[in-house]
């Protein structure tokens, strides 16, 4: 079930038909997944959009992720590769992809293949009414410590930033491109999702949330639950809290439902 926002958008919503779509795939050491996931993204974009591209962000990978992505881009002009060198973290990878995206709607999911791109079509009808669709994992296929971390993190950022989002870090979201032309993104960690949603809320963008399937990781190694990543996110948290509150007062933002 979709949950709406109390706020009306301050900006014209891009048309859904004809659809202009960028799919952003942040990747770090995903040589076992990148060809499969990017191939799925290209096939889905081709089915759904009149004008489309897939943007792979190779975030300083130390394996063959960048090499494989570049080979794909030479075979298909609809695929582009952005290289972060050195590694800029998950937030830095997403921000690079969002800035590089050239189409009117920007969808992103992770390059690890834990989401079913076949569920992307069900987000599109919601764009007739909302500016942003932010999904939540109906059943999270992660180890118990990641589930606990995610619950505590979502609860904390929801409290601090007044975001009533069920799964703030779920990597299955679609935004209008003009949002990224109106905000500055600073987070280099997993806090990027909170930053983008909170700044969008403050500007008056509407949002809704629906469930999606979460799949077990088929290959590669998860990095988001490393202690270094967690500590980095918390170091950014309270600085962002001050900045978001200041921006919220300036723009008269409220809560997202």
Descriptive overview:
- The protein has 257 residues and is of the alpha/beta class.
- The protein has a single domain (20-251), classed as Spore Coat Polysaccharide Biosynthesis Protein SpsA, Chain A, CATH 3.90.550.
- The chain has 7 helices and 9 strands, in the order βαβαβαβββαβααββα.
- The protein has helices at 34-48, 65-75, 89-100, 144-161, 177-180, 192-203, 227-251; strands spanning 20-27, 51-59, 79-84, 105-109, 132-134, 136-137, 172-176, 207-208, 211-212.
- It has a 7-stranded mixed beta sheet, with helices on both faces.
- Strand 1 (20-27), helix 1 and strand 2 (51-59) form a beta-alpha-beta unit.
- Helix 6 (192-203) packs parallel to helix 7 (227-251).
- It is globular and about 50 Å long.
- The model is unreliable at 3-8 and 253-257 (pLDDT under 50).
Structural key phrases:
single chain; 257 residues; alpha/beta; Spore Coat Polysaccharide Biosynthesis Protein SpsA, Chain A; 7-stranded mixed sheet; 7 helices
């Amino acid at each position: 079930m979709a949950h709406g926002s109390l706020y009306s958008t301050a900006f014209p919503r891009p048309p859904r038909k004809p659809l202009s779509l960028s799919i952003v795939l942040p990747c770090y050491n995903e040589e076992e997944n990148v060809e499969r996931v990017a191939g799925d993204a290209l096939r889905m974009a081709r089915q759904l959009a009149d004008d489309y591209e897939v943007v792979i962000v190779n975030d300083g990978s130390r394996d063959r992720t960048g090499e494989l992505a570049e080979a794909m881009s030479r075979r298909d002009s609809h695929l582009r590769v952005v290289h972060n060198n050195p590694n800029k973290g998950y937030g830095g990878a997403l921000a690079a992809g969002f800035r590089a995206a050239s189409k009117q709607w920007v969808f992103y999911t992770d390059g690890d293949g834990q989401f079913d791109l076949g569920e992307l079509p069900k987000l599109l009808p919601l764009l007739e009414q909302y500016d942003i669709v932010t999904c939540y994992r109906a059943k999270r296929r992660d180890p118990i410590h990641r589930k606990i971390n995610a619950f505590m993190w979502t609860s904390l950022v929801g409290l601090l930033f007044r975001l009533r989002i069920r799964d703030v870090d779920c990597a299955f979201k679609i935004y209008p491109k003009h949002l990224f032309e109106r905000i500055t993104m600073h987070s280099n960690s997993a806090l990027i999702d909170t930053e983008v949603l909170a700044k969008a809320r403050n500007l008056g963008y509407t949002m809704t949330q629906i469930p999606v399937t979460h799949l077990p990781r088929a290959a590669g190694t998860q990095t988001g639950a490393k202690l270094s990543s967690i500590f980095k996110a918390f170091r950014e948290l309270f600085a962002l809290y001050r900045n978001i509150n200041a921006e919220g007062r300036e723009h008269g933002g409220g809560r997202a439902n």
